Task: inverse folding
């Protein structure tokens, strides 16, 4: 089923509605859809390299707006307008052993402590981004920071794809398919590690 869905998404690259499909896919993937927008973005960029950066911008915009939708899903399903836990939250508190309100507060504290880096890591690496957007809403992550981290991470990822294809053309697709995720993880680890190192050197 996923394979058929994957090929159906790729088929939009040959349609005049390709850019619209890219925006919708990027939006949906950030909140609930399983197929990442990268596959259609790469196909569209290969089909017209002169529009590569335009496609990257469309993909970034759709993804960030979808991230806000994911945030809303997590926030409003978990917390009522009064600030109390919803029936959904109470259900998880009951069925997950050891998951108490105290544990929830501890996880929330850690999540908010590393807020930018949690969102950035999921936005740039292969970690399912929708999981982070929804849990960001659950833990009421600072919204402006959430948007900033989303714009930076998603923009960096999609514009890097666009630049690689614009610069090197079709042959770079093999490299992206084979090595990009590994390099993205390594880059993120080094980036976060460098900031942590600077923080401790300053102290």
Result:
């Amino acid at each position: 089923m996923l394979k058929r869905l994957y090929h159906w998404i790729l088929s939009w690259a040959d349609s005049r509605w390709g850019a619209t499909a890219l925006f919708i896919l990027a939006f949906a993937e950030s909140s609930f859809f399983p197929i990442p927008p990268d596959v259609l973005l790469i196909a569209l960029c290969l089909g017209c390299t002169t529009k590569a950066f335009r496609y990257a911008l469309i993909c970034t915009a759709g993804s960030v707006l979808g991230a806000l939708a994911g945030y809303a899903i997590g926030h409003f399903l978990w917390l009522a307008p009064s600030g109390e836990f919803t029936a959904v939250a109470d259900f998880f508190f009951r069925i997950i052993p050891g998951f108490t309100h105290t544990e929830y507060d501890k996880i929330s504290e850690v999540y908010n402590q590393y807020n930018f880096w949690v969102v950035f890591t999921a936005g740039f690496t292969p970690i399912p981004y929708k999981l982070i957007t929804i849990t960001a809403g659950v833990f009421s992550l600072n919204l402006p920071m959430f948007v900033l981290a989303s714009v930076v991470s998603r923009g960096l990822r999609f514009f890097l794809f666009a630049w690689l294809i614009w610069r090197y053309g079709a042959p770079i697709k093999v490299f992206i398919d084979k090595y990009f995720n590994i390099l993205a993880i390594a880059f993120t680890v080094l980036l976060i590690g460098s900031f942590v190192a600077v923080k401790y050197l300053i102290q």
Remarks:
- The radius of gyration is 19 Å.
- The CA atoms of residues 193 and 199 lie 10 Å apart.
- The chain has a mean pLDDT of 86.
